[in-house]
Amino acid sequence: WGPGAVPAVLTPFSPFFCSPPQPLAVPGAALRHPGRLQRLRAPARYFIHDSLDIIFNHQSRSSWEYLVHHAMAISAFVSLIITGRFLVAAMLLLLVEVSNIFLTARMLLKMSNVPSPALYRANKYVNLVMYFAFRLAPQAYLTWYFLRHVEVQGQGAFLTANLLLLDAMILMYFSRLLRSDFCPSLRQGRDVDGEKFLID
């Protein structure tokens, strides 16, 4: 629960204070309104801040996956800000961060050492639903959309490659979450020293 925790909770909602004229079914629509593009800079700043926080607190080795994720996110958002395209896609991608609220609650429950098995059990099922609703589903839709409708060259190719890499990372995190909360016997005997809260 570091300095990046509060921005992590607020970041997913920041672009929704603007109402883009495009329907959500058109993630590739262009939008160059300066005020709305300004709102998109907040998530980029969050990812930069969180990356620096990880580096300066000497957590780079144990959190290298987060640094890779943030590097891809930063490059994607900078690309979107420069071109003014795919703003609705960016908003859908930020839905992914909503599940971080519940993953953070899970981490706090594990770190608090307070005996609350019922609360933890409830949280792990909520986590499962939120991970599917806000990570897997939006990511799957955007991947399908980009592969089917977006030109595989220039910015389109760059963002499609980013999406495919994020798909792999999200599925890897999901498998770790399932093993940790629903199949703990698979983790017996493993050395978890230094591992992140998602796989503890």
From TrEMBL:
<feature type="transmembrane region" description="Helical">
    <location>
        <begin position="128"/>
        <end position="147"/>
    </location>
</feature>
<protein>
    <submittedName>
        <fullName>TLC domain containing 1</fullName>
    </submittedName>
</protein>
<feature type="transmembrane region" description="Helical">
    <location>
        <begin position="88"/>
        <end position="108"/>
    </location>
</feature>
<dbReference type="GO" id="GO:0097035">
    <property type="term" value="P:regulation of membrane lipid distribution"/>
</dbReference>
<dbReference type="GO" id="GO:0071709">
    <property type="term" value="P:membrane assembly"/>
</dbReference>
<feature type="domain" description="TLC">
    <location>
        <begin position="1"/>
        <end position="186"/>
    </location>
</feature>
<dbReference type="GO" id="GO:0007009">
    <property type="term" value="P:plasma membrane organization"/>
</dbReference>
<dbReference type="InterPro" id="IPR006634">
    <property type="entry name" value="TLC-dom"/>
</dbReference>
<dbReference type="InterPro" id="IPR050846">
    <property type="entry name" value="TLCD"/>
</dbReference>
<dbReference type="Pfam" id="PF03798">
    <property type="entry name" value="TRAM_LAG1_CLN8"/>
</dbReference>
<keyword id="KW-0812">Transmembrane</keyword>
<keyword id="KW-0472">Membrane</keyword>
<feature type="transmembrane region" description="Helical">
    <location>
        <begin position="159"/>
        <end position="178"/>
    </location>
</feature>
<keyword id="KW-1133">Transmembrane helix</keyword>
<dbReference type="GO" id="GO:0005886">
    <property type="term" value="C:plasma membrane"/>
</dbReference>
<dbReference type="GO" id="GO:0055091">
    <property type="term" value="P:phospholipid homeostasis"/>
</dbReference>
